[in-house]
Amino acid sequence: MATTSGRSGIFAVRDVRSLITETAEEGHGLKKAVGATQLTAMGVGAIIGTGIFVVIGEGAGIAGPAVILAFVLAAVSCTFSALSYAELASSIPVSGSAYTYTYATLGEVVAWIIGWDLILEYGVSVAAIAVGWGGNLNAFLDAAFGFALPDAIAKSPEDGGIFNLPAVFVVLAITFLLIRGVTESARVNLVMVVIKLVVLLFFIVVAFANFGTGNFQPFAPEGVDGVTAAAAVIFFAYIGFDAVSTGSEEARNPAKDLPIAIIGSLLICTLFYVLTAVGALGIASPEQLEGSDAPLAAALDQGAGISWAAAILALGAVVAITSVVLVIMYGQTRIFFAMCRDGLLPQRLAKVNQRYGTPARLTIILGVLIAILAALVPLSEIVKLVNIGTLFAFVLVNIGVIILRRTRPDMPRPYRVPWSPVLPIIGIAFAVYLMTDLPWDTWVRFVVWLAIGIIIYWLYGYKNSRLRREAGSTATPGWARDNEPNRREDGDQP
């Protein structure tokens, strides 16, 4: 039974107890099959992609050697939101991530808005990353074997091609893997994460073996402003840890494993990012890094004299991007699944395949749509929506922690954000600050997308909502419950 937790109408809030209970429903329950190691690998798999292989050059061009501090600052800004994700993921181990947390705190219409936002964010991310995968595949083929696929089948019409075959291939391959099961997907991702960490470790070892300090002067040519500007760019190399929370429902021990995975993956990636940045500057100047599309390969070639390293780093980039596609697409299927199970989207799509324990039908539909998007649709402009969508989700998750601490103070919280609400408020401030730095046209597109979503909600989601169908209008108004802190619904967890 989908019960409210005190509010009615479009701001009806899902009761946490009912959210957890629904995960065991026949036909709508996902298989609990992953542990802390696989979940942490999912986080690392989602975070380490083209970011470290490319964005380090852009950051060095802005901040000089102080790009090292920019990596640290970007990690700190993400940490506040990661702590909030860890608390909510361990307390509400249900698919849907920010969508589900918002449904339990801010109400149905706000949950729909963030869910609709995440559908675009994850879908465009996967399509854009798949396009990047094709480009990196060609770079690897060229570096290792001296040939590349023709532009006609390797690029989208936007880039002068006809059909991006590599992008379609990787999306459909990942779709098939996700259908087979979360256990198989997690194992493959773990292997890919190990490979890309080994490639980065190879770079770090070679760089430190040829290390010099000459490129570190002046350390911060643009001062504090340069560091903060570079951090705003580098911040997006850390995005992806939130995808771990979409696997809440399939975690064997979510109370313990999810906080470890969310915070642990961020720490691991920060360590590798900082060591990579220090090593790169130890063998190449900021100008050399900025002037290359493959800054790490350029650093090894010009700084250490290892020209053949380009093939190794190109292979690392291909593997890195493949794991990003896998984890981000996995996250989108679970968010979509949660929205369908709640009736805000067609509920029949939330049917779980009994053989594989995955939402196979839904995964196929999303895979085909994303493959078409990656093959044919211009992505250069709409991909900017990924940034604003992620930051918007960060804001709502931090708000969710603050609200649940007040409305459900006795709810079991295996992990608690320390010094709440101070740290969640800082997380909100960081996200809002970065959002204000985004271009005006990105905001316009974002508002248009949300307006389309509101129309769909009114035409379909509102009247088909499972909460509204099953709970009716018997809920106590939110202000009444919020002013009765000692009141408890029958069956609520203490």
From TrEMBL:
Annotated stretches, region: Disordered: 474-494
Gene3D superfamilies, sorted: Amino acid/polyamine transporter I
Transmembrane residue ranges: 36-56, 63-86, 98-119, 126-149, 161-179, 191-211, 223-241, 262-285, 305-331, 360-379, 385-405, 417-436, 442-460
Family matches, as InterPro entries: AA/rel_permease1
Domain of life: Bacteria
Entry keywords, A to Z: Membrane, Transmembrane, Transmembrane helix
Keyword S-adenosyl-L-methionine (UniProt): no
Membrane topology: Multi-pass membrane protein
Sequence ranges of Basic and acidic residues compositional bias: 481-494
Membrane is among the record's keywords: yes
Chief location of this protein within or outside the cell: membrane
Intracellular or extracellular location(s): Membrane
Protein's recorded name: Amino acid permease
Naturally occurring in which organism (per UniProt): Paractinoplanes bogorensis
